[in-house]
Amino acid sequence: MLSARDLAADIRSGRTTPEAVLEQVAAAIAAHESEVGAFVTLDLDSARAAARAPGLAATPLSGLPVGVKDILDTRDMPTTYGSPIYAGYRPRTDAPVVAMTRRAGGVVVGKTETTEFAFLQPTRTRNPRRLTFSPGGSSAGSAAAVAAGMLPLALGTQTGGSVIRPAAFCGVTGYKPTFRLLPTLGMKTFSWHLDTVGLFGARVRDVAFAADAIAGRGLDIGEETAEAPRIAIVRTARASAASPDAHAALEAAARAAEARGARIFDLELPEALEAADAIHGTVQDFEAALSLGDELDYDGDRLSPLLRGHLKAARAIPPDLYDGARRTAKRARHALGDVFAEVDAILTFSAPGPAPEGFATTGSAIFNRLWTLMGCPAINVAGLSAANGMPVGVQVVGRFGRDRQALAVASLVEAAITA
């Protein structure tokens, strides 16, 4: 994989150039894309022109190639949202996060594959770690492109588990920031209280560097790791859904972090937080039925049966049930604030296990949806493997708005498990 932070440092020092890095990426794409299928659109010629811009090396991203999930609008490339309804659609403007990425010196190489409207219908993308296994979803193309060394950075999104899960399956770092740290305007909305823009990179320091470059929020941790953090191991009431590989990875990560000075203890979530897990789907689906209502009414026959059926069922959710779910979520956020008064980060499962073999499913968000609902930062930490050799991630969850601290804890866990 390509380290975004190291490449940017090499560009700024003159050891390489944006053009040379782009050609390295182009060679990897030529070698792997036909098998992996991470991109729905590629425009290497335009990227080459952009990489020649004067002064690019001095920008925050130093001309690094970036992939953009095809759920985010781009003015110079089609944006299809993973649906035939929008085949060839050309937005007039970039999504703000895409514009921010370009202004920071990122060179957009192409649009990465997304599931249909970032829901559950699997894409054509394959897992670079083993091509017969799922890459996860919905940000399948972004995770796979980084895992295959075809990109140092890619933008993704998460409404349930669509950054953390594919990052875990493909063995890369996935970072879901605090809710709305990166703007979601110009993203095809599924759920406006849940949709979150995130990042994929090789290591924790790479996504921290990229988030800082794009958003300018002091998130570049460099070589920093947290000092003696208080880390709570949270298995949740759904622990029985985690495979032996997932349990083994969580235990290994905890013990390794403890050896690095972390203070580790087990924690059972308060009842208010466990109650919130069950209502994520109510919030998501009520809003999705409204967000995609026009597509269902006028182009329903062009939706997958999976999504069409889901949206029709979601229309039956009464507003008072949705309002009650949002109240439950609010109580849970207060309870989580109390938890974080005693801990610096939570360590939990990223997914129920390694990537499933085959392509019937993108996997389960059972260990992601609560943290998305809470809006707090979450990072998949890579470096551990299942018995079959496929990656198994662990997830670091931080306090709302304390992304730098969460990233520093994740960096410590990463250093511990990869030592």
Automatic annotation (TrEMBL):
SUPFAM superfamilies in alphabetical order: Amidase signature (AS) enzymes
Checking InterPro entries in the record gives:
Amidase, Amidase_dom, AS_sf
Q: Where is the Amidase domain?
A: 21-406
**A Pfam match:** Amidase
Stored PANTHER family: GLUTAMYL-TRNA(GLN) AMIDOTRANSFERASE SUBUNIT A (PTHR11895:SF151), TRANSAMIDASE (PTHR11895)
Instruction: Give the similarity note.
Output: Belongs to the amidase family.
* The protein's name in its UniProt record: Amidase
